[in-house]
Amino acid sequence: MRRCFIMGIFVSLSFRLLETWADDTSPLPTAESLAQKARAGDWKSLAKADWPSEPFAQLLIQRARYELQNWDQVLAAPPIEDPLFSDYDLYLRVLAAFARSDHEKTLELQPGDSLPTRLQEDVTYAKAQSLAALKKWIEAKAAFRNFLSRFPRSSRKTEAQLELASIEWELENHYEALQLYREVYENDISSRADTALHELQQRGALESVSLDTHLSRADRLRRAALFEKGVRELTQLRRRLEAPEQRRIDLALANFEFARRHYQRSEALARSALSNEELDESLRLDWHQLLAFSLVRQGKYDLARVEYAQILEKRLSPRDRQVILFRLGLMAVDDQNFEAARENFQKLREGFPNGIYQESSHWFEAWSIFQKNRLKSAQEDVGVNRAEINHATRLLDRLPRLPEGERLSAQALYWKSELENLANEKTKAERTRQKLLSDWQASFHSLLVRPEKMRFSVYQPHFVNPKLIEPEPQKYRVADPAFQQPGWKRLEAFVSAQLSSWAQHELQVFLTQTGSKNQGLRNAVARRLQSLGDWSDLIRYAQNNFPFNLKGLQPEDPIARLFYPQAYAEDILAAAAEFEVSPFLIWGVMREESRFQSDVISPAGAVGLMQLMPNLGSQIARSLREGRVERLGLTDPKKNIRYGTYHLRELFQQVDRLQVPPEFRTALVVASYNAGIGPVRRWIRELNTDRLDLFVESIPFTETRNYVKRVLQSAYIYYLLYGERVKEIANSSQGGEL
């Protein structure tokens, strides 16, 4: 009996121990559980997970160790055998070995061909550098030449050329080394080219670089807004040259002054150069053109016309002659000398029917006729010249049929109706206006017809309703054989863990291999780009693979949502709520500024999604008490969106202090975002502020005039696609019209 009791206790304890062991022993982690950690960016706990059985789960642990720079752990892990992910495992091992300076191991590991090109580039470059580190010069030379051949557009191209030049010098191939340094100096304007410049100077080879090469490089620096660097290099170069070549440098330096908007300085330099009787005739013409354009930019139109009259008497290229006629026409428009404007645009249109300004010459000739007759009838209370009105109407009818004229269709219809109104043809005008509203309801010019629709640009709380960013359902045929390819399976796996860069690389490979065979495949790729948040590539892909026309756009059109996606929606809605700016206006500005490319830097130096200048970014950071922000910091989407929205709020406050009609408010903010508040204040003093349509068309900066139309049109399209639905949701929840 006692024995049975003891056995019972033993069995009971055994079961309890087994239960305790079972409670303390968790199953091996699954790919889904680890993917959840990856989505949260929890690399530390992911890296500590037990080694799982699923290949993708193993890869996630390897990626976490790599992100944490645990190079030894990456290399010590068991190899991933599954061919679906084995090359990615080897990729991480190569980079880990290279980071650990284990160059022999770097060369030993060999990923296969399933790696996307961008990742193959990383591996190839690491192996070439390892060969150089081991001083295997011949092999390293071959490796870097192979790299440059396989990846000619690589962001590491300059570094590879510099490494190769150094190797060539080690091998005493001095001519080849200097050629490479020259190539870097000629083609790269970043700070990396300074190394090449230093080497050329040290080797006494800078004198062998032609003046044309120096000037070409200076021109690229000027267009990239690297003014100080360009002026410094040209000034140093000028000291080494003789007088004839110095004159060419002087012209380049004057062009830098013009690019910096120092128009008085460029005018003075041009006048000084033209006073030199020994000046070469071709240089004299270039100086005359610079002088004339400097006068235009200062508003000295009478003096500019004198210069252009002299230039037109010389032998010019067809392009130069067109540019001058166009500028003369625009100056006449600014002076409200619409008869002279019409004559210049007519010469341009008839003299160059297939020229670079054929669309603009049609438009501005019609505009000049409209303005001439409008002012004459208003001032003299006389009827319009019907022959001229009919001629202008024919020009507008022809405009959309020109090569680049379709985008001006809505503009042509709007102003055709205004011409018909001016001629007191009310029935015709109403018919034309209805055609505009029917065919082009999403256009900027439809807003001019229905100004009450501009309410979308004013912040309202329901605009930041979360329903605005509801994910759209997946719409593609999973039965398509293309989706059974290994690349798509990897893509889906990477998306599940939000490994966006790897997913984007796989998507590019998938597109290259499959093309665009059917609608289901195209939809799948577009939706995947949406889920990756790869907005700039989504727009490019949509433009290349989906038919879309603003004409007849309907709010429920799914294709339109690919061209106008809810990019960075959470960040935009947060900034809109914080600073009380319409999210649709933010989307409109961002789409036209950067096409949602977060790391883009303009030639003028504007950075990121909302194209902020670094000094403006620093000012905003100080205003928000966030300290100084570096230029690269503005490529962060959240920061760029927040700062850009804050700037829009500033501009609204400044515009609100101006005495203008309410309907001007948003257009002036958009104009100020592009040109600055100073010019906008001047335009309000000088231009017609009775009508918004006349004001916008009279903005003297062509870029700003077109920018205002594009941004407001894009913002309105965003409202049509997303805002009406949110408004309906808000109305239904509040039981009435907002």
Task: State the main characteristics.
5 domains; 38 helices; Serine Threonine Protein Phosphatase 5, Tetratricopeptide repeat; single chain; mainly alpha; 738 residues
Structure notes:
- The chain is mostly helical and 738 residues long.
- The chain has five domains: 30-120; 121-209, Serine Threonine Protein Phosphatase 5, Tetratricopeptide repeat; 318-439, Serine Threonine Protein Phosphatase 5, Tetratricopeptide repeat; 470-561; 569-734, Lysozyme (Orthogonal Bundle).
- The protein is 68% helix and 0% strand.
- It is built from 38 helices and no strands.
- It has helices spanning 2-24, 31-39, 43-47, 55-67, 71-76, 86-99, 103-108, 117-133, 137-150, 157-170, 174-187, 193-202, 211-223, 227-238, 243-259, 263-274, 281-297, 301-312, 318-334, 338-351, 358-380, 386-398, 409-422, 426-439, 444-449, 486-496, 500-514, 519-532, 535-545, 558-563, 569-579, 583-594, 614-623, 637-656, 665-675, 677-686, 692-698, 702-734.
- Helix 15 runs antiparallel to helix 16 (263-274) and helix 35 crosses helix 36.
- The longest helix has 33 residues, at 702-734.
- The radius of gyration is 32 Å and the shape is globular.
- Mean pLDDT is 89; it is low at 1-26 and 474-478.
Topology of this protein?
Blueprint: H1 2-24, H2 31-39, H3 43-47, H4 55-67, H5 71-76, H6 86-99, H7 103-108, H8 117-133, H9 137-150, H10 157-170, H11 174-187, H12 193-202, H13 211-223, H14 227-238, H15 243-259, H16 263-274, H17 281-297, H18 301-312, H19 318-334, H20 338-351, H21 358-380, H22 386-398, H23 409-422, H24 426-439, H25 444-449, H26 486-496, H27 500-514, H28 519-532, H29 535-545, H30 558-563, H31 569-579, H32 583-594, H33 614-623, H34 637-656, H35 665-675, H36 677-686, H37 692-698, H38 702-734
